[in-house]
Q: What sequence folds into this?
């Protein structure tokens, strides 16, 4: 299991979602203007990332203005160029074939940011050439409308440290370990995506193919009510699940497929100290165990520091029971 997220599924969904929007948007016209682009979907984050993509393409065109005969760096030329770009920005016209990839990328990035902000921020550095800078992050911050608290904390860390003291990946790991608030509620986003194109769990996580609704998301986000748990020694001493565990169990194809949004955040942050790779490795090991005793023996041996009375540990054991019970 290389990734907890179904990256291919997210990309495929982004294409389907974008196709539905584009077919309607260009039904009576071969191009769209700036005002249409700013409200192209009912999802503000998608619209914001579309504008971001358009601005970045525009910036590349400016950066490519070079000549052996003219000095584009002259202050007067820069001033005139800025005025020209302001005028040009009021006369945006994008054709269907050029707009499609902008929208697809915006949808894909929005799904990552909304449903798995840690993956979005982890891969953000790949977007920039060389080492990521505070200016890079601030330019992105303008377009982030959801789960922006993580980015804000990273920027503050980078501004408070000297250049070269710590890399972006290490700062991200620190922030994930220190941050107290979880990802923003996702119920409304499920409905917004479903209004355009049905969104399923398999599109995001590769598990069940049933449509995801706000109702099911709300049930998923609520903690399960179960009978009091055995102590760790009691759990290790027996392979037999309790009656409550049998009632709660559902056959999981993998540990990852059973993770809720909140659990993924909680486990990575609280149990694995923000180390996503360690969590993936552990989930993979448990998937390959013969029974839950083998899995729990491994957990007890490798992570003796875990608080066995804590909510995080209890929910992790419940997940093991559902996978191997």
A:
């Amino acid at each position: 299991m290389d990734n907890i997220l179904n990256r291919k599924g997210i990309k495929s969904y982004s294409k389907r979602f974008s196709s539905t929007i584009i077919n309607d948007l260009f039904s009576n016209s071969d191009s769209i203007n700036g005002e249409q682009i700013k409200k192209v979907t009912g999802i503000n984050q998608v619209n914001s990332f579309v504008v971001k993509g358009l601005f970045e393409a525009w910036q590349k065109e400016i950066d490519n203005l070079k000549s052996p005969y003219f000095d584009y760096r002259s202050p007067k030329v820069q001033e005139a160029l800025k005025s020209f770009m302001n005028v040009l920005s009021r006369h945006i016209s994008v054709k269907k074939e050029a707009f499609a990839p902008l929208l697809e990328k915006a949808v894909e990035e929005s799904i990552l940011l909304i449903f798995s902000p840690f993956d979005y921020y982890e891969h953000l550095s790949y977007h920039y050439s060389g080492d990521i800078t505070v200016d890079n992050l601030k330019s992105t911050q303008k377009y982030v409308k959801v789960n922006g608290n993580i980015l804000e904390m990273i920027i503050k860390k980078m501004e408070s440290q000297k250049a070269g003291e710590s890399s972006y990946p290490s700062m991200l790991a620190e922030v994930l370990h220190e941050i107290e608030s979880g990802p923003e509620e996702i119920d409304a986003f499920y409905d917004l995506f479903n209004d355009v194109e049905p969104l399923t769990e398999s599109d995001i996580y590769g598990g069940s193919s049933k449509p995801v609704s706000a109702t099911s998301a709300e049930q998923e986000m609520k903690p399960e009510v179960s009978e009091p748990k055995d102590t760790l020694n009691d759990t290790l001493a027996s392979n037999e699940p309790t009656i409550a565990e049998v009632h709660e169990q559902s056959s999981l194809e993998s540990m990852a497929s059973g993770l809720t949004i909140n659990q993924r955040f909680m486990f990575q942050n609280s149990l694995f100290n923000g180390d996503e790779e360690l969590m993936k490795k552990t989930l993979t090991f448990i998937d390959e165990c013969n029974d839950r005793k083998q899995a729990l023996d491994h957990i007890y041996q490798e992570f003796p520091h875990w608080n066995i009375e804590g909510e995080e540990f209890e929910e992790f054991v419940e997940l093991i029971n559902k996978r191997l019970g």
